[in-house]
């Protein structure tokens, strides 16, 4: 009883700083649950860059209600968003959040973790993320976010490590519901996880899959990423919840867009590297018409192409050394 009270008190203390901020409830971005299985739901982030106005609500999170508690997949991009997600869960069930499975440690998926940790939830992630969360990259990203995303990311916001680090395929059972957790990185990140819930015929794909918008490729291993997308199609899933965009009930068609985009990047930039064509010329020559209508094209495409060009240069140098 004492521990339950302390957890509730801590959760309240985390919520208090947000009360009365210039983002009153009426001004907050809508956060609505969408049912995707008999006992499963998700919330869909906005196709925008993170900002104070949207509270960094630019990614998806999902949850499954079991007889023994609620399992959440990803924690959203700020403590306030995680608090709002918990409020949405409470409108559907009184069951506590017992676990949060992290598909990968990008900021827009993890800055809400401390809220769930304060509620007593166990955090589950792949061990490959340990190197990142101890890195200067993670520290500097958080420092920048405290300025760029204030007041929703502030001095009290921290990166929360997992309680359970897994290193391979893992089956987790909560309230009789099985969660099949599989490591499919290095793809979008080294630690990419998928979460399949057979009883719901539901797959959480994290940022392996961006539905209806261009993905953010960064320095990803795009070759492995393409193979991982093929693995997604092998699941017997009626619905797939991506890291960004609407849930898909036609995964073969929708996942193919992300896969085809990655293939186009590798083919066009790979040919340029092979022919010693400078990036600027290669980018200008490439036909992007199949993708330029998609949300986030203006922000992401040039950066995706440049990072892919650099990756393929490295791959070409590696092959020559062998």
Helix and strand arrangement:
Elements lengths: L1 H14 L17 E5 L2 E4 L17 E6 L2 E5 L5 H12 L6 E5 L5 H4 L2 H6 L3 E5 L2 H5 L2 H13 L15 E3 L3 E5 L2 E7 L9 E5 L4 E9 L11 H11 L6 E6 L6 H24 L4 H7 L11 H25 L1
Parallel strand pairs: 4-5, 5-6, 6-7, 11-12
Antiparallel strand pairs: 1-2, 2-3, 3-4, 8-9, 9-10, 10-11
Helix pairs in contact: 7-8, 8-10
Folded structure, characterized:
It contains 10 helices and 12 strands. By secondary structure, it is an alpha/beta fold. Helix 7 (222-232) links the parallel strand 11 and strand 12. The protein starts with a helix and ends with a helix.
- The amount of beta strand, in percent, is 15-25%
What is the chain-wise order of helices and strands?
HEEEEHEHHEHHEEEEEHEHHH
Query: What about the largest sheet?
Result: 7 strands, mixed
Question: How many DSSP H or I helices?
Answer: 10
Radius of gyration: 20 Å
Q: What is the first-to-last residue Cα distance? A: 63 Å
Strand order of the largest sheet: 1-2-3-4-5-6-7
Helical content (DSSP H or I, runs of 4+): 25-40%
Average pLDDT: 91
Low-confidence stretches: 1-24
What coarse outline follows from CA principal-axis ratios? globular
Class by helix and strand content? Answer: alpha/beta
Count of DSSP strands: 12
Name the features:
single chain; 322 residues; alpha/beta; 7-stranded mixed beta sheet; 5-stranded mixed beta sheet; 10 helices; disordered N terminus
Write a short abstract of this structure.
The protein is an alpha/beta fold. The chain contains 10 helices and 12 strands.
């Amino acid at each position: 009883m004492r521990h339950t009270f302390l957890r509730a008190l801590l959760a309240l203390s985390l919520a208090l700083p947000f009360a009365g901020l210039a983002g009153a409830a009426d001004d907050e971005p809508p956060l609505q649950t969408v049912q995707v299985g008999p006992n499963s739901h998700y919330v869909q982030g906005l196709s925008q860059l993170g900002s104070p106005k949207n509270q960094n609500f630019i990614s998806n999170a999902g949850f499954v209600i079991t007889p023994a508690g609620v399992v959440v997949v990803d924690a959203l991009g700020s403590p306030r968003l995680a608090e709002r997600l918990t409020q949405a869960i409470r409108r559907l069930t009184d069951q506590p959040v017992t676990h949060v499975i992290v598909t990968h440690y990008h900021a827009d998926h993890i800055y809400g973790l401390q809220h769930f940790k304060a509620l007593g939830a166990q955090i589950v992630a792949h061990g490959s993320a340990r190197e990142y969360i101890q890195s200067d990259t993670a520290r500097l990203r958080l420092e920048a976010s405290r300025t760029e995303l204030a007041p929703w990311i502030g001095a009290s916001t921290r990166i929360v490590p997992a309680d359970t680090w897994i290193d391979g395929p893992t089956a987790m059972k909560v309230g009789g519901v099985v969660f099949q957790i599989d490591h499919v990185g290095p793809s979008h990140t080294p630690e990419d996880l998928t979460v399949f819930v057979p009883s719901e015929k539901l797959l959480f794909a994290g940022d392996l899959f961006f539905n209806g918008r261009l993905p953010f490729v960064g320095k990803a291993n795009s070759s492995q990423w393409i193979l991982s997308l093929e693995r997604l199609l092998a699941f017997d899933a009626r619905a797939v919840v991506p890291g960004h965009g609407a849930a898909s009930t036609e995964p073969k068609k929708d996942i193919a867009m992300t896969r085809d985009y990655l293939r186009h990047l590798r083919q066009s930039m790979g040919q340029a590297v092979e022919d010693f064509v400078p990036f600027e010329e290669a980018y200008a020559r490439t036909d992007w018409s199949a993708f330029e209508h998609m949300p986030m094209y203006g922000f992401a495409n040039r950066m995706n192409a440049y990072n892919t060009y650099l990756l393929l240069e490295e791959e070409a140098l590696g092959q020559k050394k062998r």
